[in-house]
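Reading group handout, session on sequence-to-structure problems. Before we discuss, look at one worked example. The prompt was deliberately terse, the way you'd type it at a terminal:

> structure PEGA domain-containing protein

The input record follows.
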Amino acid sequence: MTKNPKAKRLIINILILLFLVGGTVAAIQYAKGYRPNLREGSLQGSGLLNVTSYPKSARVIINDKLTTVTDDKLYLYPGNYNIKIEKDGFHPWVKTVPLKSELVSNADARLFPTINATTPLTFYQANNASLNPDGTKIAYVLTKSPIDTANGLYVHSLSGNFFGSQYTQIADNNTRDFTKALLIWSPDSTQILAVFSEKTKTTEKITSALLLSTKGINNIKTIPDVTLRLPLIISQWQDEYAKINLPTIALYPEYFSDILTHKAVNVFFSPDKEKVFYTPTLDVNLPTNEVGKALPNINATTETRNLQKDKTYVYDLKEGTNYLLVSASSSATTKKTIITAADATPSASVATLRQLKAQTESYSVGNLSWYSNSRQLVVTNADGVSIVDYDGLNMTNITYVQPLNGFVVSNPDGSRLILLTNINQKADTYNLISFDLK
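And the output record:
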């Protein structure tokens, strides 16, 4: 009996089609993270763990077992995993990360060295340091130089200058003592307002004010006193800050924008504007995190939605999460209120000027400042200077030395911390010292 060749070809084509369909389904399921479980004889879904670090090639220990090195991706069955990322010469990073079937979870560690190389940026004696609004320049006053004309007010560029010196002297100390001035950067960083005052038991009275260009040396003998123009200068700078702050505030949910503008102080946005730390002035309950519910996976650190007065929190715009920062403390004298409009008749008072200064200098009102990558915060306390993840985890001590007046800033690329501090010098002698974080 002769077989039908057409039927044979049909059967072969059906088998090929079934093989292709089955292979495609298997490939899709494999891509989703499904793996055979030999113990249970079933196909079980898994999650993808993406482990990264800076610096790279750090050891990844999962549930106390050395598993891989960064940067790597691992398929693991759903569950909670204790992740430890470590590298010789660096502080370890630890976090419990939950994995869910078919979803990607991230363990992204910024490791900091256990021993920091230090480099002095100034010599003799530096004082009265002030960071500009975009975090790229430091103004400071140099004294005790053996060259008398070298003493004075300087601007140091943190981002480097390939065409000249990183240091620019903008005034000397011969006619005015800038160590006693309140230094306030203009919002565009082109000017510095130096305000001199006298204190009594009950008040602090402005005696004079100078408006200095930051581009080069200013002749203090001929530059006019702007004390009478202070209300106009304050109003103009408040208007500039309002134009900067309002678009950023508008990015956040309406209920949260209201908290930032009317029910909180010491509000400071991260460099990428996607996070903000703030201190409520009254108890407030945040609504349910609808943003987090809509996302497939978010940071697993426990949130705090019930805000308490005078405690400090971090809010993450992208995930709608809110975390308590137990390491935060604030100044008893100055509390920054975010500027959203210029005063119609601004008062030329020291308090008003300190509010202008506090708009961008968080260390002047508390012990926190943003690290340049927007994922960590710099903290000063009795133990010196530390860096902590934005959700309050992985507090890492950088140095035990204390910064003068809390001045510690991160340079733009995050490779250094700059402190105004004393290291191996005479008592009461301070300089700007760079701490290497690479």
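Points for discussion. First: The mean pLDDT is 91. Second: Residues 37-110 form a domain with the Immunoglobulin-like fold (CATH 2.60.40.10).
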